[in-house]
Amino acid sequence: MMFKRRTNFNPKRKIRDDAMPAEALARRVNYGGNPEHKRNPGDFGLTPPAAHRRSDKTLCDGVGILSRKEALRLLRAGLRRGLISEQERDGWPQNIWAVTEAGEPLEAQLENRVTGLYHGYPMPQADPLRDEVLKKWKVS
Questions:
Q1: Residue 72, Cα to own-chain centre: how many angstroms?
Q2: CA 73, CA 81: separation in Å to the nearest integer?
Q3: What is the pLDDT of residues 75-101, one digit of tens each?
Q4: What are 36-81's pLDDT values in tens digits?
Q5: CB–CB of 128/87 below 8 Å?
């Protein structure tokens, strides 16, 4: 079965303009991951999806994120630079953005607002927010 590449993105996603570095959250945040965004999910403690992976899912492996430790480091870096969404859930931003050392923008999404658990993925080329993340990362 073939899947179409994603062409629509949630228009409610917005980077908070007045965000300050969130050091307290960076110390408490956690990364869980999602096996649909991993070719080799072993280091993340995840089980590969039972069904075939959807073709529109971007893979962390493709941008060099091969360990949970690296994913958590980038998640914390996004918080420390203030690249967080306007939307919040119980004090946690709904989304956090970061950029790899190779210049690949990433988006993390809140999974559990009680524990501050996120999963993340590389942003697709077609995502209109991608360029804004890259721009804000360079100036923060």
A1: 10
A2: 12
A3: 999 999 999 999 999 999 999 999 999
A4: 666 666 666 666 654 554 555 676 777 778 788 999 999 999 999 9
A5: no
d(CA 114, CA 131): 31
Q: Of 47, 49, 46, 45, whose CA–CA distance to 36 is shortest?
A: 49
- Which residue ranges make up each domain of the chain? 23-139
**Which residue is listed with tokens 């607002």?**
113
CB hemisphere CA count around 59 (13 angstroms)? 12
What six digits make up the tokens of 73?
């480091």
Amino acid in position 55: S
Cα 6 to chain centroid distance, Å, stands at 16
Distance CA 48, CA 34 (A): 9
pTM: 0.81
- Matching residue, tokens 């965000």: 19
